[in-house]
Design brief:
about 375 residues; TIM Barrel; two-stranded antiparallel sheet; about 10% strand; binds coproporphyrinogen I; heme biosynthesis; Uroporphyrinogen_deCOase; porphyrin biosynthesis; cytoplasm
């Protein structure tokens, strides 16, 4: 159905705050969205999940659109993020990924030795394999009616590589890191395969209607500086450059790009020179310190501790005020420092969103 929807003629944008903030332009209030804002803390999501598997939702554009809209219909958020997962790329490369109840993603046949790279469908046709994501994006852009911009996203190469080798979540990423030490050449080969797919995937998301892009390097924190600079950073840089070049070639306007390297404070300086308009910060870095390292021109996104949403509303107000006073209202997008937890009370999300708007509006009017 959505194949017939236009990918160029979208309803005009009514709230461009996050795009203005990403470009360093003035805003009349600080924009806010919440990482993993469409998910299990919402009763309407749990209800839908009780009837379909996670990937059934992701692969059905109509349902993915519906889930994307859930937090937008509840809260005064300044952006939607397309409902999907970073692990659709390993699936496009031919790997089986299951979502196990209370365990999360699981690969029944992870990559074990470099010879396993031969099993990957390296030259996969992204448009065909991940067409459901692009359809969901186009449908969601029309459904949003220009209320807020739509964010597209991808995992970064190292984070995806680590899932493909670990076969699921891991605290140490030791199996994946073993590849970096034992098989550096083959690791680069895998990272290159992933980078090429990610670039095509992000370009197609913009062509389908995504208005910002976020790259999640969720497993930055288990690398040291040397490994990050060798195996993660070069690919993060190639992605921002080639996505922009490819969009130019296709005469499609480029969109602001956000890099979020969780626990990546040790490479902030390098990330600030990687041609992303926005740097996502987790809660372990002081805003002033991040500013000193990155300078005044980039936009920051973050960095409230996701557990702050367990606090009382009064304390949450104080923390929102503190965060805004430290980041300021220019070059800033409010968010959590990582994804929201499933047992958070949606009322506290509403409180945070409304307080960030109210407090920042007062700051700006002063
Ligand atoms: O059982 C369920 O219903 C699945 C729960 C769930 C949801 C709602 C998963 C499994 N993924 C998602 C959606 C999702 N994942 C979004 C949707 C858009 C939104 O934000 O609203 C996004 C952006 C992601 C991205 C994602 N998936 C990341 C990057 C962000 C981060 O948290 O660092 C990562 C690492 C994943 C992998 C993943 N998918 C799901 C889980 C539980 C995990 C983490 C597993 C682990 O490493 O322990």
């Amino acid at each position: 159905m959505s194949a017939q929807l236009s990918t160029t003629d979208f309803p005009p944008l009514k709230n461009d705050l996050i795009i203005r903030a990403a470009k360093g332009e003035s805003v009349d209030r600080v924009p806010i969205w919440i990482m993993r804002q469409a998910g299990r803390y919402l009763p309407e999501f749990r209800e839908m999940r009780s009837k379909q598997s996670f990937f059934e939702l992701v692969q059905n554009p109509q349902l993915a659109c519906e889930v994307t809209m859930m937090p937008i219909n509840r809260f005064d958020l300044d952006a939607a993020i397309i409902f999907s997962d970073i692990l659709v790329i390993p699936q496009a490369l031919g790997m089986v990924v299951e979502m196990l109840p209370s365990k999360g993603p699981s690969f029944p046949s992870p990559l074990i030795v470099p010879a396993d790279l031969a099993k990957l469908n390296k030259d996969c046709d992204v448009k065909k394999e991940l067409g459901y994501v692009f359809e969901a994006i186009t449908l969601t852009r029309h459904t949003l009616q220009g209320r807020v911009p739509l964010i597209g996203f991808s995992g970064a190469p190292w984070t995806l590589m680590s899932y493909m080798i670990e076969g699921g979540g891991s605290n140490t990423q030791s199996k994946a890191k073993a590849w970096l030490y034992k098989y550096p050449e083959e690791s680069h080969e895998l990272l290159k395969i992933l980078t090429n797919v990610i670039i095509d995937y992000l370009v197609e998301q913009v062509c389908a209607g995504a208005q910002l892009l976020q790259v999640f390097e969720s497993h930055a924190g288990c690398l040291d500086h040397t490994l990050f600079v060798k195996f993660a950073l070069p690919y993060i840089r190639v992605i921002s450059k080639r996505v922009r070049d490819k969009l130019k070639e296709r005469k499609v306007a480029c969109v602001p790009m956000i890099i979020f390297a969780k626990d990546g404070h040790f490479v902030l300086e390098e990330l600030s020179q990687s041609h992303y308009e926005v740097i996502g910060l987790d809660w372990t870095i002081k805003p002033q310190q991040a500013r000193r390292i990155c300078g005044d021109t980039l936009t920051f996104q973050g960095n409230l501790d996701p557990c702050a949403l367990y606090a009382s509303k009064d304390d949450l107000t104080k923390m929102a005020k503190d965060m805004l006073s430290k980041f300021g209202y220019k070059n800033y997008i409010a968010n959590l420092g990582h994804g929201i937890y499933p047992d958070i009370d949606p009322e506290n999300v509403k409180h945070l969103v409304d307080q960030v708007h109210k407090i920042s509006q007062e700051m700006i009017q002063k």
